[in-house]
Target: Diguanylate cyclase
Amino acid sequence: MMKDLFANLAIITSLLYLYTQFTKDYPLSTHSSLKVKLIAGILGGILSNILMQYGIHFEDLIVDLRQIPILLLSFYGGPLPPIIAMIMVIIGRFMIGVNVSAAASNIYIFIVAICSIYIFKARIPALAKIVVMISFSNIIFSIFLYYLTKDMQILLALLPIFWIISYLAGYIGFYMIRYSRRSQLLFKKYKIESTIDSLTGLNNVRKFDEVFNKLSNEVKINRKKLALMYIDIDFFKHINDTYGHLEGDKVLKDLGFILRKYTREDDIVSRNGGEEFTILLQDCDLRLAKEIAENIRNRVEHYDFILNNGQTIKLTVSIGLSSFNETTSDLTLLIDDADKALYTAKRSGRNKVCVCNSA
Model:
């Protein structure tokens, strides 16, 4: 008896783990798409039917934990997923055998599914909802079991074990899903943070390298154009020395805003370190790249940078520009050429756009 219920518990634990791994990019919630809810409901119905196959059999009566997937679906997905699973359970139970026990167990699962949906809507803590759902389903199960058996020996032997393992299965299922989701959210958060500059919100140098390598491979295959800007704030050290690093950070944030605003939607804007920024311009010829660079230079020159203390300052940027296949036919030199062009802009007076002429 206990062995069969523990087998149910093991099945729930194993299959829920697999479910959370395969659906980590599309976790079930009340806001999920119809497709996600349908899939979750079907998978929950399959799991409940599997649990029936490994339940405790007393003649026509089958005792198992089929209600647990339905309770979890109600908790996470709202009305639709548990209703789908419930229908599958009802069909599955009648396929095993059409008798009084089957009819009673299907009435039981119907009551559990409908009531769990209403319990989900209650304004109580999450863990309390799970406890109430399981307690209610256990009470209904106990009533139906008494009606079907009227054997106190069976009831006293089975019900305490069933109640304990039901609570255990519900808690483990709830905990596994919650833990898995938190882990996945943290992973996504760290993944994003590993590629984003925390100060400006732009791509960082790691993301720049990743995108540059990807675009380089695409350009080689498709023979598309690719331009690169290197942008550096003129006399930024003077700003830090005069106003402090906090004000320097404010300037960097504002410049990041300008770069995003005056580039195209598919351009890759990055902060590569310090006061140095880059822009990768996909499918962009040298003429258009120079127009964009000149517009950025002009916008920065006439922008009022407001510091945290309310003071307004002006600054300029120097921009180096290279292009494949117009300034270089070697993609490995694109970065070096843009850097050289930036150096030329700095050396020749700053506040300029210079194009590499190595082609």
Q: What stands out?
A: The longest strand covers residues 226-233. The mean pLDDT is 90. Residues 322 and 333 are 9 Å apart (CA to CA). The chain has two domains: 2-189, 205-355.
